Amino acid sequence: MDQSKGSEIRSAIEELSVMVKVIGVITLLQAENGDRDAAAFNISHEAAHIPTRPFLSLCYFLLQVLDKIGPTMAVLRQDIHQNIRRLETRHEADPSTYSNMVEVLKTEATDSTARNITSCSRAFVWLTRSLDFTAELLKHLAVNPGQNMKEAVEESYNLTLKPWHRWISSAASKVALMLVPDNETFISSLMAKDESYDNLKVEMETLVSLLVPYLEQIHSILINFAEVLSLGQVKGQLMR
């Protein structure tokens, strides 16, 4: 997602809008076929669909947000980029089959490789957690634009990523927080040229309103696959 300054949030909104439409079509088809329970929750593992390319585009948006936070997120950024490349490599190997991320989960569950440290399933879980962090951070800034940036990043990290990081990663994050830019600098970096804060706030709210339910759907799919394909047991315990 190679976009000009300040257009990242708008691009992410466009990507999410497309995915919401795709999920809506699948839900409608499930309802028409009489699978009303699956249609209500969007977690039928046979019909579950997570478009791979749009998901990866969202992850690249995440990298751009981390770049704006600065070097404090360098380690996290490196991990995210490696996970993106892992999924891209799998997708490129068979674009038709792996246009749906769920097919990747099915393949690795069948091959009993899902829990391998270099598996695409593990990469997908960690990318989802990182997107949880992004959604939480943007929600903090949209609701309370005057909040101290360090506090916003720390609270978002504690709610989403810290529970799954080993103590070394958690200790490193405390040091990294010292390098977080101030609120005004970060907000300005998100704005397009001549864009007002009010417009940016609306964009952040729109993105969060799309991203949060989308991630909830992904968590529902992961929980379903955790039970059916032995990826884990419950949300938050899929993989460490």
Could you list some keywords that capture this structure?
disordered C terminus; globular; mainly alpha; disordered N terminus; 10 helices; 240 residues
Percent strand equals: under 5%
Net shape: globular
Determine the mean pLDDT: 80
Total number of strands: 0
Number of helices: 10
Summing up helix and strand content along with how strands pair, one would put the structural category as mainly alpha
Q: How far apart lie the N and C ends?
A: 29 Å
Radius of gyration (CA) equals 18 Å
The topology string of helices and strands comes to HHHHHHHHHH
Low-pLDDT ranges: 1-6, 36-43, 231-240
Walk me through this protein's architecture.
This protein has 240 residues and is mainly alpha-helical. The chain has helices at residues 8-32, 36-41, 52-69, 74-93, 101-111, 120-143, 149-160, 167-176, 183-190, 197-229. Helix 1 crosses helix 10, helix 3 (52-69) packs across helix 6 (120-143) and helix 4 (74-93) crosses helix 6 (120-143). The longest helix is centred in the C-terminal third of the chain and has 33 residues, at 197-229. The radius of gyration is 18 Å and the shape is globular. The relative contact order is 0.15. Residues 1-6, 36-43 and 231-240 have low confidence and may be disordered.
Write the layout of secondary structure elements.
Blueprint: H1 8-32, H2 36-41, H3 52-69, H4 74-93, H5 101-111, H6 120-143, H7 149-160, H8 167-176, H9 183-190, H10 197-229
Helix pairs in contact: 1-3, 1-10, 3-4, 3-6, 4-6, 6-7, 6-10
